[in-house]
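Progress report, Aim 2. The chain analyzed during this reporting quarter is listed below.
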Amino acid sequence: MAWAVQSVAEFERWFLTLERGVRVEIAAKISLLQEVGPTLGRPHADTLKGSVYPNMKELRVQIGGDPWRIFFAFDPRRSAILLVGGNKGGDSRFYEVNLPIADERYRDHLATLIVPPQSKRGPKR
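Predicted structure tokens for the chain:
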């Protein structure tokens, strides 16, 4: 079974700014996520501590000795949502800076899935 993988617009914009070789390596890891789904574990993925969401994870990609990370979470529809990414090499504040961004983007994504209930009176005329 192939798992659905989607990304927020900010992630897509960031991804397109990367050098071709980096995009290819990250795309390969995303393809693995698509094949394996939520059970993908170390060394390819790991659960993130400190997120508001217990299902927040990171894809782990090594490119030329640099540790790249892609934060994602599976939504209630069981689609992986790619939220934020970057090269954490030498950045001691990588998680401190990017985890709140991922949480916010995931919250915004979840809000798009919630449809307000219809009024019991029916639509206004």
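The beta strands are 5-7, 45-47, 57-63, 66-74, 80-87. The mean pLDDT is 92. These observations will guide the mutagenesis work planned for the next reporting period.
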